[in-house]
Design brief:
Strand content of chain B: under 5%
Low-confidence stretches of chain A: none
Helix content of chain A: 10-25%
Order of helices and strands of chain B: HHHHHHHHHHEHHEH
Largest interface: A-B, 13 and 15 residues
Structural class of chain A: alpha+beta
Number of strands of chain B: 2
Order of helices and strands of chain A: EEEEEEEHEEH
Structural class of chain B: mainly alpha
Strand content of chain A: 25-35%
Low-confidence stretches of chain B: none
Number of helices of chain A: 2
Mean pLDDT of chain B: 80
Largest sheet of chain A: 3 strands, antiparallel
Oligomer: heterodimer
Largest sheet of chain B: 2 strands, parallel
Strand order of the largest sheet of chain B: 1-2
Number of helices of chain B: 13
Helix content of chain B: over 70%
Strand order of the largest sheet of chain A: 2-1-6
Distance between the termini of chain B: 33 Å
Distance between the termini of chain A: 23 Å
Shape of chain B: rod-shaped
Radius of gyration of chain A: 13 Å
Chain lengths: 114, 600
């Protein structure tokens, strides 16, 4: 589970290969862009396929949680990178596909922002 | 008195007129006398008359020519005007002319008689020797008489001519200088005149008597008998010789007339001098009369004219002096009154000046006291300035020490800042370690979570490590914040120190300026103290001078008052002098001067 500008995000643990410090050389997209926020340095989540997403804070939930399916319309609108939702810490967290979300951010992020 | 001829030539001719007349009359007298008294050789009487008349005319002409030459200075006068010297020469010639005329007449008479006697002897033959001798003696005896008479007549005219010439432009003094060389032989002249006037008639009378006796003896000798001679002698003794009596009376009359003419020539100048003296005695000081005379009378006349002239000048000067004295005394009186008034004003002014001087002396004393006080104050000021200078030096030294300490503080703060920066670097390193630890712990926790139930313990440890790492990171953040605060504080301290140093430098500069100014103030205060001390000394001297001035003004005031009194006395003396001048002027005015009549 991650926080980006006060917004909640969640990625499946198995899609995260490593968590690294912010490195501008990597030119990874920032999740804050998805919330129309200015990107800031944070943690970089790296997927197996090499895509990466920068978030402000990373939280690890050690216990397995059940995935709540997302509405079809939401899944269609997000081109499949929204997998569902989980409920943790009395809050609902959207679960995203790290590689798809990274590509989505790359597509939607302006060049100068990226 | 007849009018004088206007021209010089006519004047000369007029002067010599009596000489010609005397020569002709004397010649005719001699001819007549000779015809009466002389015994001529028969037939020679006519020759005698012709020779005598010819000699008379010839000698008269020659004598006239000589006399005119003697009056050449008179004849050379110019009608339109002449100089003083020409007039003096003419006056001298006119004055000497009677003597010249006398000598010429005497010479001509002697020459003429001798000529007639010799020529008659030559014509009449040896028998006329006695007659020729008598002719010579007759002429020589009559010559002085004729010359004296001519001299007296010419003398009268020559005096009038001299007066006329002098009236053409000679003063009495110039006339006296021109005629001063005349001899003074009045006594000798009178003796000669008396002798001539007495001897000549006596000579002629004796000659007549001798000739009568000769004629009678001849008549007696011509009578042949003794009785006839006795009878003739009785007749001749009873005979009254009328011709001899008439001749004697005529000669006596001539002698008396000569004496009268001589006396008139002597008395007239004396009478004129007496008249002039009388006019002088009455105070009439008109132009001094030129009384021309001869010998001592001329000397007296010249002296009288000089005295008259000097008296006129003296009285004129005295009158002028009286007028000036009167005017001057009037001015002196006025000046004395003005001076008296001025003295009063001066005394009043001096009184005011004296009061002012006293006030000045008091002021000078007050000024001297004030100057002494100022001198004391200046001394105290100098001491205060010197104390202030010492304090300023101490302050300046303290400021310098403080500046050094501030510099040391600034150096310490800079060193502290560097240490803090080094600490910040260490903390940053710790922060990086903590952050990497956090990442490692996060990845470890993620791997433990991926491992599932097996990695659960591992995840927990990783989570704890992650919390520690986050705590470290938070602590490093806190430390970095504190370091930032310290850095800000140290920076502020550095800036404050630098500002303090700048302030200290400014303060030091100001302290240095204050010290310099205080040194100048001390120097000026020292100079001021010296000047004030000099002023105090000068004011004390001024006070002494003012006291002396007051005493001097008092003395001047006293002298002025005495001068005012003297001025009053002088004014009274001037008034007396003015009265004396007026009296003198009135006395002088009693003399009538010619200048007064001419308005001078």
């Amino acid at each position: 589970m991650c926080r980006s500008g006060g917004n909640r995000l969640a990625f499946p643990a198995r899609q995260v290969v490593a968590v690294e410090a912010y490195d501008p050389v990597l030119e990874a997209p920032n999740a804050r862009v998805a919330f129309s926020l200015a990107p800031t340095p944070g943690r970089t989540l790296i997927a197996e396929s090499g895509e990466a997403v920068i978030v402000d804070e990373v939280l690890v939930h050690q216990e397995a949680l059940s995935l709540l399916p997302s509405p079809a319309i939401a899944g269609g609108a997000t081109a499949g990178w929204l997998k569902g939702f989980i409920s943790a810490r009395d809050q609902l967290w959207p679960v995203l596909d790290l590689a798809d979300f990274s590509r989505y951010l790359i597509r939607t992020t302006p060049a100068e922002v990226a | 008195m007849s009018q004088l001829p206007p021209t010089p030539a006519a004047l000369a001719r007029w002067i010599s007129g009596p000489s010609i007349l005397g020569g002709l009359v004397g010649g005719l007298f001699c001819v007549g006398y000779g015809l009466i008294t002389l015994s001529f050789v028969e037939g020679s009487g006519g020759y005698f008359s012709a020779i005598a008349l010819g000699a008379c005319v010839g000698c008269t002409v020659i004598g006239d020519q000589l006399e005119q030459r003697a009056m050449g200075a008179i004849r050379s006068l110019l009608p339109e005007g002449n100089g003083v010297q020409a007039l003096q020469r003419a006056a001298r010639a006119a004055h000497r002319f009677p003597d010249a005329s006398f000598l010429i007449n005497l010479t001509m008479w002697g020459f003429g008689c001798s000529f007639v006697a010799i020529l008659y002897r030559l014509i009449a033959g040896p028998g006329a020797s006695v007659t020729s001798w008598r002719i010579a003696l007759l002429g020589l005896g009559l010559a002085p008489m004729i010359s004296v008479i001519t001299y007296l007549l010419v003398q009268e005219r020559s005096r009038r001519a001299v007066e006329r010439i002098c009236s053409l432009g000679l003063t009495a003094k110039q006339a006296a200088l021109a005629l001063a060389s005349q001899r003074r032989q009045l006594r000798l002249r009178l003796m000669a005149l008396t002798a001539v006037a007495g001897a000549t008639p006596a000579l002629f009378i004796a000659d007549v008597i001798w000739s009568q006796n000769e004629r009678r003896v001849s008549e007696l000798l011509a009578v042949p008998d003794r009785e006839g001679q006795l009878l003739l002698a009785q007749q001749l003794g009873a005979e009254l010789d009328l011709r001899t009596l008439a001749l004697g009376m005529a000669l006596a009359s001539v002698g008396i007339a000569t004496a009268m003419i001589a006396g008139r020539g002597l008395v007239r100048p004396l009478r004129r001098l007496a008249e002039a003296a009388g006019r002088l005695g009455t105070g009439n000081l008109d132009a001094p009369p030129l009384v021309v005379a001869d010998d001592e009378v001329w000397s007296a006349s010249a002296s009288f004219s000089a005295i008259h002239e000097q008296l006129r000048d003296a009285l004129s000067r005295l009158r002028t002096a009286g007028l000036k004295l009167n005017h001057t005394t009037g001015q002196l009186t006025g000046a004395g009154e003005a001076q008296q008034g001025g003295s009063a004003e001066q005394a009043a002014a001096l009184n005011e000046t004296f009061a002012t001087t006293e006030e000045l002396a008091r002021s000078a004393g007050q000024i001297a006291e004030n100057a002494t006080e100022v001198s004391n104050i200046a001394s105290k000021t100098l001491e205060a300035a010197q104390h202030g200078q010492h304090s300023a030096r101490t302050f300046f030294a303290s400021m310098m020490q403080m500046a050094d300490e501030n510099r040391r503080v600034a150096d310490s703060v800079l060193k502290l800042n560097k240490r803090v920066q080094q600490i910040g670097k260490v903390v940053e390193f710790i922060h990086e370690v903590g952050d990497k630890s956090d990442l490692l712990a996060l990845n470890a926790e993620l791997e433990g979570t991926k491992a599932g139930e097996v990695g659960r313990g591992f995840s927990l440890v990783a989570a704890e490590m992650r919390r520690l790492a986050e705590t470290v990171v938070q602590s490093t953040h806190e430390i970095e914040r504190l370091i930032d605060e310290i850095r800000d504080g140290t920076n502020a301290a550095v800036m404050a120190t630098e500002s303090g140093l700048k302030g200290m430098d400014g303060g030091n500069a100001l302290a240095k300026q204050v010290l310099d100014k205080l040194e100048e103030i001390v120097a000026l205060a020292r100079d001021t103290s010296e000047s004030v001390r000099s002023i105090s000394l000068s004011t004390q001297q001024q006070q002494t001078g003012s006291d002396q001035l007051t005493e001097a003004m008092a003395e001047i005031l006293r002298i002025t008052q005495e001068g005012s009194a003297s001025g009053e006395q002088m004014s009274a003396a001037n008034q007396t002098l003015c009265q004396l001048a007026t009296s003198l002027q009135s006395t002088v005015q009693q003399f009538r001067l010619e200048r007064e009549e001419s308005g001078g």
